[in-house]
Amino acid sequence: MGWQDFQDDYNQPDTRWHKGPLNLLTDVPGITVGHQTVRLGKVQTGVTVIQPATGNVFREKLPAAMYVINGFGKSTGFMQVEELGTLETPIVLTNTLAVGTAYQALVRRLLAENPEIGISTGTVNPIVMECNDGQINAIRTLSVTEETIQQAFAACTETFAEGAVGAGTGMCCYDLKGGIGSASRQITFDGQTFTMGALVLSNFGSLEDLVINHRAIGKELKKVIQAEKKVEKGSIITILATDLPLDVRQLKRLAKRTSVGITRTGSFIGNGSGEVSFAFSTANRVAHFAESAWSMRTVLAENLMDDCFRMTVSVVEEAVVSSLMHAQSTCDIHGKTVYSLSDALARL
């Protein structure tokens, strides 16, 4: 089976859903994504920024929910999201030891945009999420700086690369090269079309477990790719966004279903792994400075949620596979080759 045969097989259209025009998270209107990649010798790391909506997100917040599938991680801001159900900053993805730097950079950015923070109103709740890229990246060099984060912000557009870029530069997935993956789906209710998009930072799994299109491709690749037996300590961050008018409880239910899309690719959610899902809606924005005592919102009927659940599983599964399909082979910090999916398949 060659790479082209694999692509042709995988890219067969899914008759249940239409993909968005870009098949990316940014098919949800208003979202942009930017990467900044840092490569210098054994340093292979970076930052990915998600601007979740147009306008000032601190003053016009987004309904949001998060779900920790397995909590081996160092993300920030989750406690307040769990309590209040809102997203009020862009989202930054990076490596584990750069979380503090990213947090500080987000704070500086939000302070500059909102002079009332910490004076006439409360503080701010930055959302930063991470995976450990120490297998490929010399993580102890602390090579992500505040300037790196600001460069990722400057690069935010509707079109963005996948694979070994930005925060995904040093990540491994199923013992292959992983990183950033994305996909989107569209659905129609009462004649109106809505979009759901997913973006993953994939850094988990063992080759022998990899399943694509219900095919145990990992077992086949084990015959030609040497992968050491190891304890599962990987992670995956999943960002799920939609313009569907969903409330916080419904978003949390979607976030839970991302685990099904991840496990369809073969994951068993290891003891030492960190699987975190974050879901938000760009509809029904929440004013920081409310002008009325009442907030009137339209919310999707509950009996339509099954369609949303199925769509969540589909879009997350493809995003994980997309992170593998777009990555390139590289060397880890010990000089060992970490194969891309395409190069691995070429060895069969």
From TrEMBL:
Keywords: Aminopeptidase, Hydrolase, Protease
SUPFAM superfamilies: DmpA/ArgJ-like
Species, as recorded: Enterococcus italicus (strain DSM 15952 / CCUG 50447 / LMG 22039 / TP 1.5)
Record InterPro entries: ArgJ-like_dom_sf, Peptidase_S58_DmpA
Family the entry assigns: Belongs to the peptidase S58 family.
Recorded GO MF terms: aminopeptidase activity
Short name of any one Pfam family annotated for the protein: Peptidase_S58
EC number annotated for this UniProt entry: 3.4.11.9
Designated name of the protein: Peptidase family T4
